[in-house]
Amino acid sequence: MEDLKSAVQNAFKYSPNVLLEEYIPGRELTVTIIDGEAYPVVEIKPLEGWYDYTNKYTSGKTHYEAPAQIDDTVAKLLQLYAIRLWKAFGLSGYARIDFRYDDLKPYFLEVNTLPGMTSLSLTPMAAKAAGMSFQDLLKNIIDITIKYGGLK
Fold it and tell me: Is 5 inside any structural domain?
């Protein structure tokens, strides 16, 4: 708390708008949805600190479990919530829904409507855990895009 005031003042140097959120302890989990279907849950485990830019984009800085080593009931609940959120936001094609889980209940964090497709990206990890190759994942996304009129 003693650092909060100076941190907020520092943030205002970069923007006139600052968003503060309560920290939710627990596990960081994500569910990819492709054309309304939930893929296996992926857990994000930075080896040190937070899942910040460095840990996200530097190979070896984060361990990923795909599928996540969580109770099957929790995994199914997260997938159900992800599908409901995907529908509630009126999404099509594919997206990734991120959660925190404190071993009691899941907390919805955000929707990523254009998930990354690098070797460290979560959507390809989820697809691989579902038995889908990277090439098949890309073909599936292209086919869905054409299906919804995204490419003519």
Answer: no
Question: DSSP readout, 9-73?
Answer: HHHHTT-S---------SEEEEEEEETTEEPPPEEEEESSS-S-HHHHHSTTSEEEESS--S-HH
Domain boundaries, position 107: 24-147
> How many domains does the chain contain in total?
1
CATH code, domain carrying 119: 3.30.470.20
Whole-number Å distance between alpha carbons of 125 and 119: 8
Closest Cα to residue 86, out of 105, 121, 117, 112?
Answer: 112
> What does the pLDDT look like over 61-94, one tens digit per residue?
999 999 999 999 999 999 999 999 999 999 989 9
pTM of the model: 0.87
Domain assignment present for residue 9? The answer is: no
